[in-house]
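Progress against Task 2.4 (sequence-to-structure conversion) is shown through the following example record, which the project officer requested during the mid-term review.
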Amino acid sequence: MHVSPVLAAQTTYPFVRIEEAKRRKAAEGVRIFDFGMGDPREPTDPLIKRALVNALDEATGYPAAVGLPELRVAVAEWCERRFGVRLDPEREVIPTYGSKEAIFLFAQVVLDASSGKDVVVIPEPAYPVYERGALFAAADVHTLPLLAEHGFLPDLEAVDDETWSRTAIFWVCYPNNPTGAVAPAAFHERLAELSLEHDFLVCSDEAYSELWFDQPPASALQAADRTNVVVFNTLSKRSSMTGYRCGFVAADARVIESLRKFRPSVGTAPQVFVQRAAIAAWRDEEHVERNRALYARKRALFLDLFERKGLALAGSEATMYLWVEAPEGETSERFAERLLAHGVVVAPGSFFGAAGEGYVRFALVPTEEECAEATALLEDVL
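Structure tokens generated for the chain above:
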């Protein structure tokens, strides 16, 4: 049997490796506290569940790739309330099946190697899907390290003119996974300017835009000229709806028109009853405020622990993640293995790319009670 050489070259997906290690430890009878994968485990708000149940009678027929008009309107209205940006719900918004599939497939929509636009620039460390999607689209992947000394922002001035001329997509993610760093509006503005100068698309993964603790983060949509800005967002983290699979892409009408042509071929529209639940979620902020408060309490437990134990935090300004420096003399994987020996699962920073070495990521997804128990356990481990 022949398989794609790109697929054959892929290593095991990092989170699969974490899951396998967790299962091995659980089989030994060790109680597991899983901070490895960013999968919220808090119950989805009842308001959202009711909207889904009430829409079950609409479950016949294939969902249209362009989504329900009411959902596009709800997304556009949310973007205006949250970011002060007016979007045309007919021409500048399209629903997606979460954001992972849309991110993975996007390079197939816009890459044009015959015109010399064959480069996808990604940050490192990063969500692995940016790179994997680019590779399956036969892109030439260039990485830019996210370093503590630069506030975990890519150094835009380090990109040479030849690379800019070949760049089709430049991926960013703020608030950032895995570092938890936040980008200032000036960064988004500068990147949008460069996208116009060099004719590439800024693809901004904003899955964590609503998990903040001090000030609401800026969006790439707020750039003065967002012609080349494409924003991906999702209800997975904002509303604890990972299993529902519903997000959106917001972009210039040219990009959305391309997605309207492409997406019927891949059949990844959310089910109609999920779209009805999504409408309820985008129109409600109370459950989001409760989620933020919950993450803030869980975060405080760990900040207090790490301060007492002399563990340094980097980034970690927003998101559900804490980006923690490994103790001196320990690699990311060795530190993660030591914690796993006591049942505490974390993600080694090296799983997100070479620049992630020296850190581990805690995803604050266990319950508040479990977080309290885990921090008590770690008192004797760290």
